Amino acid sequence: MNATSLPCILVVEDEPRLAKLLAVYLRDSGMTPVIVHDGLAALEAFAQHRPALVLLDLNLPGRDGVSVCRDLRAASTVPIVMMTARIDEIDRLIGLEAGADDYICKPYSPREVMARVKAQLRRVQWAQDGVPRNMPATSGPDGTGARVLDINITNWRVHLDGEPVDLTPAEVRLLHTLHAAPGRVFSRQQLLDHLHDDGRAVTDRVIDSHVRNLRRKLATVTQGIDPIRSVYGVGYSFEWPAAD
Ligand code: CA
After folding, report:
1. Which among 109, 134, 234, 235 is least buried, having the fewest CB atoms inside 10 angstroms?
2. Domain Response regulatory spans what residues (predicted)?
3. Fold of 137-238
């Protein structure tokens, strides 16, 4: 992907109305949609068009989204955003570790889908440019556009743009896990597993309480910008909000 070519987005969606709607929004956002309606056609279309990103429905005729996702992931690091009609499916999907980068629950707003698509494309662009992956889309306070989040998990010290942020060890671990994979959605259970490796029995609502405190403390340095995204019914991911 570069400034002169429109990124190609592969949409695998068997509901024609939804596929058309996504295509309209993708074109309006300056992207080129390629649409296929079943899982069998997805891999062939992927090989032919080499898209910059795949929007992949879970329930498809031919082959289901999880098996398509696994095959794509085995062949490529392309960002995959999986779409499902059931919020309770997302936990299961994350657990299956099929390799999707983000999850969207239907009914979705097309604007939300475009925001997620753009976030994934930015993530890939940063990785390709060799720019630190914690670089935000928004400008930093120094005007350079860079926010530098430095997390030291040996001494539990965290600095954001050089400013110390006073966090508890649990908050540091949580932030470290989320920040190490920007844009990736973690379920509460996954975050708990990273938090306590001794398998202690705690409710996953503990994560919500840690995130609440983490947000409050980060906000003192970020001027209110919240880099932790809540994914309704699922969990959390780390990403600096887009400027647009
Ligand atoms: Ca479907």
Report:
1. 109
2. 8-121
3. Arc Repressor Mutant, subunit A (1.10.10)
| C-alpha 183 – ligand 1 centre gap (Å) | 24
Distance (Å) from CA 76 to ligand 1 centroid: 23
Among 10-14, 65-69, 80-84, 148-152, which is the least confidently predicted range? 148-152
Global model pTM greater than 0.70: no
- Distance, in Å, from the CA atom of 91 to the CA atom of 86, rounded to the nearest integer, reads 10
Spacing, Cα 139 to ligand 1 middle (Å): 39
Between CA 7 and CA 157 the distance in angstroms is 39
- What CATH number matches the domain at 3-128, 3.30.70.250, 3.40.50.2300, 3.10.180.10, 3.40.190.10? 3.40.50.2300
Cβ atoms of residues 57 and 104 within 8 Å: no
Tell me how far the alpha carbon of residue 64 lies from the centroid of ligand 1, in angstroms. Answer: 9
Q: How far is the CA of 9 from the centre of ligand 1 (A)?
A: 18
Question: Cα of 57 to ligand 1 centre, how many Å?
Answer: 6
Residue 63 CA, ligand 1 centroid: distance in Å:
11
Each residue's pLDDT tens digit, 161-194: 888 999 888 899 899 999 988 888 888 888 888 8
Q: HEC string of 36-55? A: ECCHHHHHHHHHHHCCCEEE
Tell me, in angstroms, the distance from the centre of ligand 1 to residue 46's CA.
18
CB neighbours of residue 223 within 10 Å: 8
